[in-house]
Structures are given as structure tokens and as C-alpha cells.
Amino acid sequence: MPSTVDPNNILPRYYQLINIIKGQIDSKKWKPHEPIPSERQLEEIYNVSRTTIRQALDILTRQGYLYREHGRGTFVSPQKLQKGINELTSFTEDMLKRGLKPASKNLNLELIEPPADVAAMLDIHDKNQKVYKIERLRLADNQPMGLQTSYLLLSEGQEITEADLGTSKSLYRLLQEKFNLIPTEADETLEVTVASEQEAQLLQVPEGSPLLLSERILFSQFRRPLEFVKILYRGDRYKYYARLTR
Amino acid sequence: MPSTVDPNNILPRYYQLINIIKGQIDSKKWKPHEPIPSERQLEEIYNVSRTTIRQALDILTRQGYLYREHGRGTFVSPQKLQKGINELTSFTEDMLKRGLKPASKNLNLELIEPPADVAAMLDIHDKNQKVYKIERLRLADNQPMGLQTSYLLLSEGQEITEADLGTSKSLYRLLQEKFNLIPTEADETLEVTVASEQEAQLLQVPEGSPLLLSERILFSQFRRPLEFVKILYRGDRYKYYARLTR
DNA sequence: CAGTGGTCTAGACCACCGG
DNA sequence: CGGTGGTCTAGACCACTGT
To answer: Is the minimum distance from the CB of B246 to strand D below 7 Å?
Structure first.
């Protein structure tokens, strides 16, 4: 963990600062409800201008790591506000954040013509456009956690294989490394449903058990729909976190 | 709707700019996927520095009104991304946004010693601290939508009456007008549950029906816990929206 | 190449807080 | 009062897009 800002680093300075400050918080050098050095002091310490300091602090404040009080100072948030909330994560990343070991069992992988509702979500107008349909049972600490159906919209020549999905990597990471597609934003809805016979069997719950249904449209860095994904979570195991502001 | 930035206005200039730009978008003068004037042009138009322009554009981008493309310009977001998502709203405001008429039926209002879990959520250490417990059946277009249990932590002398709740106003608005307490942030969890006999009766669903349980800790502008509120939503009527970024 | 957004600086004045 | 964060300016250089 570097502790100085390097002007020659490829990363912007405010971003290096974010990492440094997160490090101070995670390592408990700066403790909850304690003030961190003032903006003018940070200017001196890291040799960057106050504007740059503020850019870093603003982002950390939005992410819930810090809070500010006009005229008093900038303080470390209590733990319960520190979760990286409203952050776009894959199932894999989500589980790791919760301290669970993610895994997955492939149920199906095929290239299909999308059903009308999926085509609409992905903004597909070309009748011949096909999408990958990926069905996976998702596990956390080796217990069934959710049933995921993903529709991936790729370009000509971009292919996904069983082997790709086998590599326990996050799908998001795969998309980035293989196709340079970076998930940057998603619109998500959550609602309640009950398990069908088949779903119940896969998730190992009684038929009719309550489930949490998440539907998500994922956008790439080009602001094009990249994936439409449904996850049916076991109602007894999954909890969703959000932070709201006004 | 003012269309110039007034340096003497009490509102900061970037905030005035936000309102002006939102106005241009809402009135369709600037249309989805069209570029808005460049930052240097906006400097000229509104006579404020580029930093100030960028502060406004950054916020509007985060709120989903605009998107930026490096080297190309700043563009108006398509409608579906324009919902004020992840915004902290009361039940009343939430329903109005969905185009539904909110209403409520008071079931109970009392001043109690909070149960231990609620006291913990509200960060109460004083054994004698009492909180208001408010139970209400929430309606949308005159149909049962949710069952709300709210624990309000007020100071000595701050009182809530049945009459206050009768005024169909948002509780958030009431807190602001009566006590100058401004809800500014909330941590929310969502999970699935099933209706007990009593809940089922009030919500007019069969016992055991799936429900969406929202639990929220609301913080005031002083960053103190102000309310702990649970809402049991009818699973067949309520859907939750979120936007995620990375 | 000219034009765009992204990063950064050094400075200024204000509003708020606490002693 | 001095110190804090909040707002704002005028300028600079960079990285990226299109032509």
C-alpha cells in the first residue's frame, strides 16, 4: 500500500489519494468518528492542491467512508455506513463482500433468439440478433443461494464457452478481459415471488417458498445494454442493502 | 424557471445551474442523446467558471440526467435512466412518483421504551429514552400496499399527535416543518418474508403470502439516527428500483 | 488538427464552529 | 478569534474523439 501520491503514476492523483485514505481507514489508523487531517493539512502531507484533496474526499464521502461537518472537520464513518453500497457488483463480488465463498454450477449455455421481453430490455431491434442464455445455480459457502438466468448481448465473433464459465472468475471480469467490455452501470428491480417446483428443487427449498427476484439491465462503458439478468435468491438467505440520499 | 445564474442568489451557483439544466431537459429543449453545450460554451452562456459548470454537470451525471463521453461531449440521458433513483423518499413521495394516490390509516401511535433491537438501530444508550411507535396501514389508490411500523427518536418537548398524522402530509415534510429535522440519508435493507395472520388480514392477502420487508434507518442532517422504520409491502404490488454504478 | 471532457494548480472569499 | 469545510475563479496541461 503506497502512502504517497506519485505525480508520474498513471492513476490520477485524486484516485491515489482515495486508495491511501481507504487504507488508513481499513487499517484502523483513522478510527470511526475521529477527524481526519484537515484539507489544508492534507495539502501539505501529500503535496497536492486542495481541489484535488476535495475531489478525493467528496468521492469517499459519497461512498460512505467519511462524513463532513461544516466548520468542524471531516470524520471517519462508523462501520455500519462503510459498506460499498449501491456499487455495481457481480454475484461473485457480492458474495466475497459478504464474506462468503461464491461458486456456481452451470445448468445451460446456448445461443438463442431472445424472447420478446428480453429483446426489449436489451434494446434489440434486429430480428436475427442472437444472445447467449446462461443458466447457473449459484452457491455461497457451498449452499444454494440463487438461480441466475443471464442473457448476454455480444457482437459478431465474440464467443462464450463452458470453459469460460468454469474458471470461477467473475463474469464481469471475463467480459472485460476477453472483450474489453466494462460493466459500468445497471438498472435493477427487486420484487417478491414464490418458488416453482423446479426452482424449489434446485434451490433446495419447499415449493412455494418466498424468493427475492432481482432483474438487472447491465450497460457497458459504451452505454449499450450488455446483459439482462434475473436472479432468484433464496428468501431465507439473501438480504439486499442500499443507501439512499437526498 | 430562471434561466440565468444570479451571483447574489442565496443558492450556490452550481445549484442554480442544476435547476436550469434540469429545466431544459424536462421541457425537452435538450433531448435524449443530444449533446448539451460544451463546458466552455456553458462558461460563456452563464458567466461562471468551468469548475462551477463541472460541479453541476457531475451531480447531474450522478443523478442520471446526463452522461459524458470523453472527447465527444455531454449528452442527455434517455428517459429510462432519468428516474430519480436511489433518492431518499417517504412512502408518500414514493407513491406519488409512481403515479399512485397515497393514503394511510393510523393503527397505533404511542410513546414507548424501544425494544432492544430498535434501541440498537437508533443508537440509543439511555435506558429512559422513549420513542414514538407509529403503526400505519399504507394505501395506494385506495388499495392496501404496505404495513408500516415506525420508531421515531425525538428530543425532549418534540411531540407528534394523531392530528399531525392525519394531515396526509409526508412524515418527512412534517419533521422538517415542525422540528427542523431534515432527513438526509438512510441505510435500507430488503428481504423476503411471509404474512402472519394479522398482517394478512390488514393487507387483504392470504396468510403466508410473500411480502417484501424493507427496514430503514433514517439519519437527520445532524447525522443522528432519527427513525427506524419497517415496511411490509404486498409482494404482488410493490417493486423496488435501484441504479448501480462502479 | 481543433474541440471535447478529465485532471490539476494556487489562490480567494464565504459560512460555520468552537474556545 | 482562528480553523474548518463550502464555493468560486482563471488558468494550465492532458487524453480522447472526430475529420
So the answer is: no
